Amino acid sequence: MAKPSEKLRALRMRRDGISIKSIASALNVSTGSVSLWCQSIELTSLQKEKLRKSQIAAGHRGRMIGAEINHQKRLNAIYDAEQWGKSSVGSLSNRDKYLLGIGLYWGEGAKSRTDTATITNSDPSIIVFSMRWMQDCFSLTKKDFNPYIYISESHMHRRQDIVHFWSKALKLPQSQFHIVFLKGRTKKVYENHNSYYGVCALRVRKGTNLKYRILGLIKACKENVGVAQMVGAQHS
To answer: Residues 199, 202, 207, 208: is their CA dihedral positive or negative?
Structure first.
């Protein structure tokens, strides 16, 4: 049997508008016992409102705790995936980097007859790797590059900052860059306006023959993996 003191505490807590579940937890007794003890207590409207707010607050705390747990699970999953990626890839040989560049150009490079050799992306790491790849594999120098930066006209006032960003990333003089303003192309509002640096097209001066050579490499890779006939009509 429950101690009289526990029942009295339960009654006092219930009159203060505390929930049955909270009382049971505080007194380390069953919710059934607390319900039985407190069944004669009729809560006032103020007590009911206090109980409602308490339940809402408890629910919010529970959601916050659940969200934090899920957030930590995601962080752990990402960390595990990154560690798995490092151990799986290991060190890249020169041939690995050579093929990686071919795959990158296959996906992001210019292929039309009128284009010079160009790789376009907004990710600086992709553009930096592309420049190193073309320098190492095709003996280009920094003077061979003629980058174009495409930015929204709404960022016209940040022109100098944007050129400086790409110039620092690629270690090229700002005089080598061309700015193209895109009029009315986007209505997107960025959370951090100053983190937008547009899209960089890493163009090669007089790079048409280089483009043919790269496309030849891509075609050889297509044939090697057995997809040349499926997409050959598009870029062959």
So the answer is: negative
Domain extent for 179? 94-235
Q: Taking the CA atoms of the chain, what radius of gyration do you get in angstroms?
A: 33
**Which pLDDT tens digit goes with each residue over 45-99?**
777 777 777 777 777 677 777 778 888 888 899 999 999 999 999 999 999 999 9
Total domain count for the chain? 1
pLDDT of residue 118: 97
Q: Does pTM top 0.70 for this prediction?
A: no
- 224 inside domain: yes
Please give, one letter per residue, the 3-state secondary structure of 164-213: HHHHHHHCCCHHHCEEEEECCCCCCCCCCHHHCCCEEEEEECCCHHHHHH
**CA atoms of 116 and 41, how far apart (whole Å):** 84
Nearest one of 129, 75, 138 to 103, comparing CA atoms: 129
Return the pLDDT at 233: 47
Residue 87 in any domain: the answer is: no
Find the helix or strand (DSSP H, E) in which 119 lies.
strand 118-121
Q: Which is nearest to 117 in space by CA: 95, 101, 103, 134?
A: 134
Structure tokens at 71: 């957030």
